[in-house]
Amino acid sequence: MRTIGLMAALLLPNIGFADPSYALKIETPAAQKAKRAVVKLHVTPGAGFHMNQQFPTVVSVVGPAGVTVEHPKQNGKDAVKFDEHQADFDVAFVAADAGKKQFSGEFKFAVCSATSCDPKKEKLSFAVEVK
User: Fold this and answer.
1) Strand pairing partners for 35?
2) Interatomic CA distance for residues 13 and 68, integer angstroms
């Protein structure tokens, strides 16, 4: 039975395995054109893991045409909160016009357990509806 599940996962690329070492949550705002809005990125380590504060954590976000991202590249010092329990980053932006705005980027961080430290590279992709 396990082999069938593994084969199905290999044949169907949309099926993925969850990483139990962390959870990433992206909160998008209700945004208005020409006004500052903030997307919130939140990483929580899984059971038995903690955030590695010595790892060169970097958040990079690119907005579409007509959107200005205040700090497109941030590190651990720019975090709203960054300790062993979580990493929180705010991505502030202003959109010149209304419509669905698609953002992309990358979030590099590391989580550690008692026996290992694992660097992570999470691709970011989220949309914000601007009114």
Assistant:
1) none
2) 34
What residues does 71 pair with on adjacent strands? none
- Location of structure tokens 């959870």: 23
pTM: 0.84
* pLDDT tens sequence across 43-61: 999 999 999 999 999 999 9
Contact 14, 6 (CB under 8 A): no
What type of residue sits at position 120? K
CATH 2.60.40.10 is held by the domain 18-130: yes
**What single DSSP character describes residue 98?**
-
Per the listing, tokens 């690119």 go with 62
Q: What are phi and psi of 34, to 5 degrees?
A: 65, 10
Q: Which of 40, 128, 47 is nearest to 87 (CA)?
A: 40
